[in-house]
Design a protein that fits this description.
The protein is mainly alpha-helical. The chain has one domain. Helix content is about 75%, strand content about 0%. Helix 4 crosses helix 5, helix 8 runs antiparallel to helix 9 and helix 9 packs antiparallel against helix 10. The longest helix has 30 residues. The mean pLDDT is about 85.
Length: about 260
């Protein structure tokens, strides 16, 4: 791999991780369309780590408030405090995806990196997002979320282990089905990525350390840095967009891209 290749992947990751269009699907398609070597799961995870750092910094005030309320309650759930409740919902939500993801990571998931699968999932879940966003009103915010909401969104997140589904897209879709506002659906989706990406990063980091591949480790550090820059910019722009408009442009993009993939794969 070259530095230019990593920077290009980081830009693709930053533009697609938090937009509901599937970052993993775009990363795989990028390597296929450019005839460059598939970067593999390890670099994919490194790119996601860069996005994770961007989320933590962007939502640093919310995260600090959650930490304060959790420790003030002596690490016990206290749903009467909004940030304490949010912290525990964010810990509960990723559990299904962590379990399923661990299973797939150890028993093989390369077969899912197939353009036909990506085309179908990009198209289908784009249409599902449109239905949820168009026909379900925004009646709730983060303060009104309950345990059931976190579990349902967490179960939906399992579908994102199939490339093309979009982790942010499917969790936002479920949140919209639960009548959570567009801005708060995106906010919860982004913060929900923290435990999942952190767990995947630890697993891949351990693998790289055991293998002792210095070159791949250096590539991973470059991927983290450039992905962070692109991701932070996209988070800011997306949150500003959702204060005024809907998810329709992302739906249109997914439908067009999905059809093009299925036509030319």
């Amino acid at each position: 791999m070259t530095l230019g290749h990593i920077i290009a992947l980081a830009i693709v990751q930053g533009l697609t991780e938090f937009l509901p269009v599937s970052s993993s699907g775009h990363l795989i398609l990028f390597s296929r369309l450019t005839n460059l070597k598939d970067q593999g799961v390890g670099i994919d995870v490194a790119l996601h780590i860069g996005s994770l750092i961007a989320v933590i910094i962007y939502f640093r005030h919310e995260i600090l408030n959650m930490i304060k309320e959790v420790f003030s309650a002596r690490l016990k759930p206290d749903f009467s405090k909004p940030y304490n409740r949010l912290a525990f919902l964010l810990l509960i939500g990723p559990i299904p995806a962590l379990i399923v993801g661990f299973y797939l990571r150890n028993f093989g998931m390369e077969f899912l990196r197939n353009p036909k699968i990506i085309g179908c999932t990009i198209l289908f879940y784009g249409l599902v997002l449109y239905f949820a966003d168009r026909f379900f009103e925004s009646r709730r915010d983060l303060k009104e979320m309950r345990l059931k909401d976190a579990v349902l969104i967490g179960l939906a997140q399992c579908l994102a282990l199939v490339p093309g589904t979009s982790r942010s897209g499917i969790t936002i879709t479920m949140a919209r089905f639960l009548k959570i506002s567009r801005v708060d659906a995106a906010k919860f989706s982004m913060m929900l990525s923290i435990p999942v990406i952190a767990a995947a990063g630890c697993l891949e980091g351990y693998r790289l350390f055991v293998q002792g591949n210095i070159t791949e480790i250096l590539y991973a550090f470059d991927a983290v840095f450039y992905s962070f820059i692109a991701s932070y910019l996209v988070i800011y722009l997306m949150m500003e967009w959702l204060k005024r408009w809907t998810y329709l442009p992302f739906v249109i993009y997914r439908v067009i891209l999905g059809l093009l993939i299925l036509m030319f794969v």
